[in-house]
Amino acid sequence: PEQKPVTIYGDSHFYSSYLLTDFLDGRIDPPRALERCSDHRAGTLLDSDKARALLHCGSMIAGLSLWRGRYDRTFKWLEHLHWLRRRPGSPSALSLETGQEVFSIAEAAGSEWKLRHDLEQLRYLSKRPRRQQVS
User: Fold this and answer.
1) Residue 22's closest CA among 75, 61, 55?
2) Does this model's pTM top 0.70?
3) Are 94 and 101 in contact (CB under 8 A)?
């Protein structure tokens, strides 16, 4: 029999899953894709930790979108993740390198590291030509 281009519904962690295909084809938006990916992790891996789901699903869906050359969907996805991780009151994010919690923005607000980081970003931005911003 001819091989199908997608895997069964339960295999959300594969690049050929219905979840990822639905997201790339625009049938579901980023919040729904994250919800479905998180539900998959909770149902099949018995991992209901929202921070780990955000880390895993975030990198998986971004990677798939880039791999397939769907930069429009990659942008939508990363914009959503950025909002989730940077909005006021958001929980601490997990490190891609360690999987451990990194400090929250609120905790870092008064730190020397955060001050240096912000100054470096402002210097970089001030040297760039002005252009229309997308958000």
Assistant:
1) 61
2) no
3) yes
